[in-house]
Amino acid sequence: MMNYDLVVVGGGPAGMAAALKAKECGVDSIIILERAETLGGILEQCIHSGFGLTYFKEELSGPEYAARFIDLVEKTDIVVKTDTMVLDIDENNLVTAVNKNDGLLKIQAKAIVLAMGCRERPRGALEIAGSRCSGIMTAGTAQKYVNLDGYMPGKKVVILGSGDIGLIMARRMTLEGAEVKVVCELMPFSGGLNRNIVQCLNDYNIPLRLSTTVVECHGKNRLEGVTIAQVDDHLQPIESTKEYIECDTLMLSVGLIPENELTKNVGIAIDRVTNGAVVDEMRQTDHKGVFACGNVLHVHDLVDYVTMESQLAGQGAAEYILNGEKETVYVNSTTGNGVRYLVPQRVNIRNGNDVKLYFRVGKIFKNAKVVLECDGEVISSKKKVKLAPGEMENVVIPADVLAKMNENSTIVVRVEE
């Protein structure tokens, strides 16, 4: 059995940022366990630019952004084990992992940071009619084929879902010579960043059809076409709007699911909206010494936000390791009108620092106000020209406001139209 102060599960941008921050805070022994063959996570296949604008104040590609953190990790004595799968975490923070070199590993940790990222929702979750022909894949799989493996998935493409990766792959396939027929989105609004709609669809004259879905796939061995249809207010296909589109590839960009099997197995509480752990302002879960950050906690739209959040988790883990448990008086943060979820879901009012709450809205709002209310008093009210589900927002609770609160206090974030 090995002993480490901190075990970080996942070597993507979240895991690396958390490990580096913990090291900076004085934690001696840290190990990163990564199931892929290299550090970097999903960034390794995201060769487009647009990363780092917030954190580094410059525009980088995904591999460039990852490389900066990989270089920093390599300059420390942080132990890294790649090609290593974590199998289990028990109630005493004993981590069980396996790889081909060491075999079965047992690692006793003082603290753990969960940074496993997320996975794409597959076709099986969509119940699309039709045969199981080739040519149907998630947008992330197609991205790996094109950017890492050098394969073209197809020549005539329909994309279902307007998440950021779907929008980016619409542009990528076009640049590689494919014809992207249409991007269909079930909801009446896009799930991606506005800048990606402009740069990936509008700039290439690729149509985006809202309130439209794929209802059937056609083809026996290889996809030959799809039938699309508009949907009503209950998201049910409208028979009279059905339309056949010839294509050999259907890419799915229909949502991301945090990889929380390990989290659930430990018995950590899961938020039913984010599908990630319930955490406090330092990203500690309700299991002592276990922290969560990045896309395993809630799906981010910018990797810069992942980095900043993960540094909080790394700092929180370091404080736990070096100083033990601190005094906590928790108050739940509550969603009000128009807000789908809030992270963190609870705040320690004895923390002594400002706390930033991240949230997403449930629909598009124009010329609305984001209101932060504590104990019935409006703390802040900010006017926003536009709020969209695809873009994460935040509000800050000042430290002096938290200091005046008690265990019966309330924190509410809502949208006023």
Describe, in plain words, how this protein is organized in 3D.
- The protein is an alpha/beta fold.
- 21% of the residues lie in helices and 35% in strands.
- The protein has eight helices and 28 strands.
- The strands form seven sheets. Strands 1, 2, 5, 6, 7, 8 and 20 form a seven-stranded mixed beta sheet that branches. It has a five-stranded parallel beta sheet with strand order 11-18-12-13-14.
- The longest helix is centred in the last third of the chain and has 21 residues, at 303-323.
- The protein is globular, with a radius of gyration of 22 Å.
- The chain starts with a strand and ends with a strand.
- The relative contact order is 0.13.
- The model has no long low-confidence stretch (mean pLDDT 95).
By CATH, the superfamily of the largest domain comes out as FAD/NAD(P)-binding domain
Number of strands: 28
Mean pLDDT: 95
What would you call the structural class?
A: alpha/beta
What's the domain count? 3
Q: Judging by the overall fold, what is the CATH architecture of the largest domain?
A: 3-Layer(bba) Sandwich
- Segments where pLDDT lies below 50 for 5+ residues? none
User: Outline, from the CA principal axes?
Assistant: globular
Q: How large, in whole angstroms, is the Cα Rg? A: 22 Å
Q: Please summarize the sheet with the most strands.
A: 7 strands, mixed
Give the N-terminus to C-terminus distance in angstroms. Answer: 57 Å
Percentage of residues in helical conformation: 10-25%
Q: Remind me, CATH topology of the largest domain?
A: FAD/NAD(P)-binding domain
Strand content: 35-45%
Please give the CATH class of the largest domain: Alpha Beta
Helical run tally: 8
